[in-house]
Structure formats: C-alpha cells, structure tokens
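The data are passed on as follows:
___
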Amino acid sequence: MFDINKIFNRVYHSEMRRWSSLMNIGLMYYSRTGNTKKAAETLNEKLQSHTEYVETIELLHEKKLGFFGAARLAMKGEHPPIMNNEVDVNKFDRLIIGTPVWAGRPAPYVYTFLDHNSLSKEIKTGVFLTSGGSSEKQQKTQEIFKENLMNYKLKPMAASLIFQMKKGIIKDGTQNIDTFINELLSEK
C-alpha cells in the first residue's frame, strides 16, 4: 500500500530542490514600436525552456516620442522620465537589458531606469539590441552600451544579441540565442 505522506514529502522536497537551484533572471527592456518587445518575448520563451525563473519588466515612458524626437534624446544623452522606476533589481541573480538603437545609441529610457535603481551587488548582465539596420553597424553601439553599464555596477557578458527587425518580425539574430543563454547561466 502507498503511504501518501511519504510520496508527498518526496515530491515536495524534490521540487523545492529544483526551484531553489533556479536563477532569478530580470528581463528588462524598452520598446517604442514593439520590435524590442517581440525580441524580449522570443528570448523569454527560450529562457523558460531552460526552466529558469524570469521576471519581465517593460519600461514605460511617460511621453511617447516620435522617431525624430527619440533620436534627438538619444543624441543629447538625456534621461527622460519613465513610469516604472521602482523595481528592485538587487533581487536578480542575472539581468538582461534590451533596447532599440536610436541614432547609433541605446534608448535613453534604459539609463533612466538604471539611474533610479542603485545596485548593492555586481550583477552579470546580458545585452540585446534591436535595429532596422544591419547587425554589423550595431557592434559599436553594443560596445558603448556595455561600457556604460559598468558605471551602474553591472557586469556585461562577452556574448550579446543584436536582432535585425522589420515591423515586429525578427529578420536576423535568433541563431545566437542559445550561446547567449549558456553564457548568461554559466557561473563565470
């Protein structure tokens, strides 16, 4: 005969060990047109298949800008207000930050978020960019972004993702997702 208490305890403790070994990953992104949101959803699906706990945070602007207004903000290096500054990023073991590329620069809303969140520990951070242009041209933007993240106690990974987008469809960049996730989840 089965002892239901023993079975329950065995299953419960097995699940608790599995859940306690999961990393808490923050997937934070800003998307003006929906392209970066689509890339974030694609990345989130892959992370979920690795059975990691992922909290998705879409940064919300207070005032939506048009194409030229967004490019002007990025070029000036201004940090415009967002509605959701109050997420405790210190609870994450890993952080992924996604941003569109505006005038060769990351969207400034990401920096606004980081300005309002002081980190108490260094967090390994993955970066993904979305752009309508070719991914080769975005390498410089990626390097500048990674350098800037170090000012916020973030530890950028070597691997990053650049998605070439067209109207909410990923044209190029998904082939590197597995390498990106493997580096993110590694202990280094």
Remarks:
- Strands lie at 24-30, 53-59, 94-102, 105-106, 123-131, 154-156, 161-166, 169-172.
- The domain at 23-185 is CATH 3.40.50.360 (Rossmann fold).
- The chain has one domain: 23-185.
